[in-house]
Amino acid sequence: MILIISFLDNAHVERVTRHLTRDYEIVDLSWFPKDMRMHAMISPEVDAMALDLPHGRRLDLDEVGAVWHRRIRPFELDPALTEETARSFAWSEAAESLPGLWYGMDCFWMNPPDTDERAMKKVYQHRLAAQLGLRVPETLVTNDPETARAFVEPRMASGVIRKAFRNHPSAPRQTLKVGPAELELIDTVRFTPVIFQEYIPVALDLRVTVVDGEIFTASFRSDPQYDVDYRAGIGTAEVAPYQLPDDITDKLREFMKRLGLAFGAVDFRVTPEGEHVFFEVNPAGEYLFVSDRIDLPIPQAIAATLERHDAAHSR
After folding, report:
1. Are 204 and 250 part of one and the same domain?
2. C-alpha angle 302-307-311 in degrees, rounded to nearest 5
3. Which residues contact 231 (CB under 8 A, 6 or more apart)?
4. Residues 37 and 129 reside in one and the same domain
5. Is residue 299 part of a domain?
6. Number of domains comprising the chain
7. pLDDT at 315
8. Pick from 44, 60, 297, 302: CA 20 to 30 A from residue 285's CA?
């Protein structure tokens, strides 16, 4: 049995399930605890974990051989629970209890939730990538205005970008070059840490999708106005398959292994001189904008990975 922890109207999940031939179940965490029941019984006679799904099926978690954990939705509490303290307590208990099931499952995960969360941390990513020999932009993370100023000012001529750690829905922050207007606001860094990086000149941007060691790479040649962040110009970019150099491939596989990730969407930039510069990895990054554009078989690779590990578990 393959368990997909995501939601039913996720286009990336739907594309993968087209290629699954083994039994699978999609579990949306927004069903819990309102519409989904969990059961964990541990005694001398019984050791079992299960979920009762909203459509009436009981999922025996010991039958699961492979899990795909991708872009979950938050829990939903019963609206009958109205008192604020009670709701806060119920949310806390739900958040503490359900992961106990995941950690108790002896099977393949792509990717374990705690591994996803750790791998999302930018400082950790960049340090590990650099230690493995990947070229990383000169990077400063700080909430000290003077340290920020000392990093930014000498690099203004060649370019400095600033970015957010995550895209916050209610306060989105684009990746932008620091200009005179931003420099005037440098003292506001004291309110919360900011990522500053040297600007890397661009020949190509790369999206590298890694699926259980298999690597799929697409290059994007964007219009000049998207030289800082290619994502805004995907629609007009020239997209083509790309072959990573062997040394970059070897380092990237080791990077993924050290992070504990079976899946990751990795961004690189190729400079005009041909240097490959690592930007970041997203453990739940999108891939349809690549696979649909140049017919890379990424959904098929994900499905094959899940089926291979589920079959091995079932023997």
Report:
1. yes
2. 155
3. none
4. no
5. no
6. 3
7. 72
8. 60
Q: Taking every pair of C-alpha atoms in the chain, what is the biggest distance, in angstroms?
A: 71
Indicate whether 176 and 219 sit together in one domain.
no
Q: What is the layout of strands, in order, in the sheet containing 108-110? A: 24-28, 2-6, 66-69, 108-110
- Residue 100 token pair: 């106990």
Rg (CA), the chain: 22
Instruction: Return the residue matching tokens 């070059």.
Output: 177
* Assigned token pair, 272: 């005009």
Is residue 134 helix, strand or coil? coil
Query: What's the gap between Cα 219 and its chain centre?
Result: 20
At residue 147, does pLDDT exceed 80?
yes
Quote the tokens at residue 291: 């696979």
How far apart (Å, rounded) are the C-alpha atoms in residues 168 and 280? 17
274: domain CATH number is: 3.30.470.20
Is 168's pLDDT higher than 70?
no
Q: How far is CA 314 from the centre of its chain?
A: 28
pTM value surpassing 0.70: yes
Q: Helix or strand or coil: residue 229?
A: coil
Same domain membership, residue 206 and residue 73 = no
* Digit-coded pLDDT (tens) for 293-307: 999 999 999 999 999
Residues 59 and 33: their CA atoms lie apart, in Å, by: 15
Domain range holding 190? Answer: 138-198
- Amino acid (one-letter) located at 258: R
The confidence score (pLDDT) of residue 314 equals 82
DSSP three-state, residue 307: helix
pLDDT of residue 224: 86
User: Is residue 309 a part of any domain in this protein?
Assistant: no
Give residue 75's Cα distance to chain centre: 20
- For residues 116 and 230, membership in a common domain is answered with yes
Match 């594309």 to its residue by tokens: 15
The pLDDT tens digits of the residues spanning 221-243 come to: 998 888 888 888 888 899 999 99
Encoded tokens for 254: 């080791």
Where is 146: in which H helix or E strand?
A: helix 145-152
**Residue 151 included in any domain:** yes
Alpha helices (H) in the chain, listed in sequence order: 11-17, 84-103, 113-119, 122-131, 145-152, 180-184, 246-259, 288-294, 298-314
**Co-location of 68 and 194 in the same domain:** no
